[in-house]
Amino acid sequence: xxxxxxxxxxxxxxxxxxxxxxxxxxxxxxxxxxxxxxxxxxxxxxxxxxxxxxxxxxxxxxxxxxxxxxxxxxxxxxxxxxxxxxxxxxxxxxxxxxxxxxxxxxxxxxxxxxxxxxxxxxxxxxxxxxxxxxxxxxxxxxxxxxxxxxxxxx
Length: 154
Prior knowledge:
The protein is 29% helix and 22% strand. The chain is of the alpha/beta class. The strands form 2 sheets. A 4-stranded mixed beta sheet has the order 1-4-3-2, with helices on one face. It is elongated, with a radius of gyration of 18 Å.
């Protein structure tokens, strides 16, 4: 049996980051436990102090195929570049013509900017200094989520 995984983000605002990634990945905020109409109702019923209501959040794939993303509140700032990042594969891969992939990536970049992402490194800056064969046929954009976590759209 395969081991299931969840990806955990340490963050300042779990609710905000979970909502961003739910929109970015076409996922949903994990529903509250059975018998509760909302997370607020669950937290109130289980006597969690209000100041702890944004201590965590989670995002799930509505089809149950992708990993769960868990967001836990930490009071330490993000120290540097991520050691792990997500790649959002929207271009269709190498079998799709480059110009078509670029158009798909650019459309997704625009959508993600609307959700609160930031453009970090435009394509032209990424390929400076690379040999022509290193970037041939490739196209991706480096972005950051609302708390500065880097990810790529390709």
